[in-house]
Structure formats: C-alpha cells, structure tokens
Amino acid sequence: MKNVTDSFVSPGHWPSAGSFGFNTDILATNPINLSVVIGVLIFFGKGVLSDLLDNRKLRIVNTIRNSEELRERAVEQLEKARARLRKVEMEADQFRANGYSEIERDKFNLINSTYKTLEQLENYKNETIHFEQQRAINQVRQRVFQQALQGALGTLNSCLSNELHLRTINANIGMFGAMKEITD
C-alpha cells in the first residue's frame, strides 16, 4: 500500500510535462480519472441534479398538500357521517319506542275488538237459539192444537147426530148474530 500512496505524493514518479505517454499503473491513474469525472459531473450535473431534486421536492410537497386536503375532506365527511349516524340512531330509537307503544296499542285494540266480536257472536248465537226454541215451541203448539182440534172434531162427529149437529150450528149462528147486534 505504501507504493500506491507514494505514487500520488512523490513528484519523481510523475512523468515530466514535456513527454506524453500512457501510464499503465492502474492504481495511480484510476483515482485521478475518477476525481476528474466526479468533478465534471458535479460541475455540469449540478444544475440538472438540482432541477431533478427541486422537481422531486415540488412533487413531494404537492403530494403532501393533496394528502392533507384529502385527509381534511375525509375528516369532514367522517364527522358528517357520524352526525348522520347519531341522527339516524335517535330516529331509530324514536321509531322503536313509538313502534313498541303503537304495537301495544294495536294489540290492546285488537284484543278489545276480538272481545266485542266474541260478545256479538255470543249474542247472535243466543238470539238464534231463542228464535229456534220459539219456532220449535210454536211448531209443537200448532201440532198439539191440530191434534186437539182433530180429536175434538172426531169426538164431536162421533157424538153428535145430525140433528144435534144442526142445533149446535144454529145456536152458534144465533150467538154470532147477537154479538153482531151488540157491537153495532
């Protein structure tokens, strides 16, 4: 290593200015070439590099600004959504409370209506039973009356002779005539 550093420092190793030739010592020429290339790159590339860095910086700043604006809009939308959610939850609670009370009211009304309907049906049933009983009683009365009448006619016909029959008819006609005179 000492040879490499000596070649940079030692003036005897450098060829004289009057001669031109190739230095084949790679270790001695590479650092010089590299320093020249880096110097040229820095001198000429400084503007390009600073432009590239400025453009990159502007894009990053714009991206950050856009991200901040998007974040602020997202926060606003989130707050609006939360407010809407609170409002909807309150309305849902009111609907639930109103719905439960309305359901209870409807249930109570339905039960009352059912009881009234059952009472009406019971009344109709009782009226129908009473009507049918009265009809049955009337039918029995008519049959009993018809049988009694037929029995009486049969007894009268068998007991009455023609002469007695004619006297009974005349007596009845006489009674009807007297009744007619009384009423007139």
From TrEMBL:
UniProt entry keywords in alphabetical sequence: ATP synthesis, CF(0), Chloroplast, Coiled coil, Hydrogen ion transport, Ion transport, Membrane, Plastid, Thylakoid, Transmembrane, Transmembrane helix, Transport
Superkingdom as given in the UniProt entry: Eukaryota
One protein family per Pfam: ATP-synt_B
Membrane-spanning parts: 32-49
One Gene Ontology molecular-function label: proton-transporting ATP synthase activity, rotational mechanism
Span of the signal peptide: none
Membrane topology recorded in Swiss-Prot or TrEMBL: Single-pass membrane protein
Subcellular location: Membrane; Plastid, Chloroplast thylakoid membrane
GO cellular component: chloroplast thylakoid membrane; proton-transporting ATP synthase complex
Ranges in a coiled coil: 64-98
Role, per record: F(1)F(0) ATP synthase produces ATP from ADP in the presence of a proton or sodium gradient. F-type ATPases consist of two structural domains, F(1) containing the extramembraneous catalytic core and F(0) containing the membrane proton channel, linked together by a central stalk and a peripheral stalk. During catalysis, ATP synthesis in the catalytic domain of F(1) is coupled via a rotary mechanism of the central stalk subunits to proton translocation.
Note: In plastids the F-type ATPase is also known as CF(1)CF(0).
Entry similarity comment: Belongs to the ATPase B chain family.
Subunit structure: F-type ATPases have 2 components, F(1) - the catalytic core - and F(0) - the membrane proton channel. F(1) has five subunits: alpha(3), beta(3), gamma(1), delta(1), epsilon(1). F(0) has four main subunits: a(1), b(1), b'(1) and c(10-14). The alpha and beta chains form an alternating ring which encloses part of the gamma chain. F(1) is attached to F(0) by a central stalk formed by the gamma and epsilon chains, while a peripheral stalk is formed by the delta, b and b' chains.
HAMAP family: ATP_synth_b_bprime
Protein name, UniProt field: ATP synthase subunit b, chloroplastic
Record organism: Rheum lhasaense
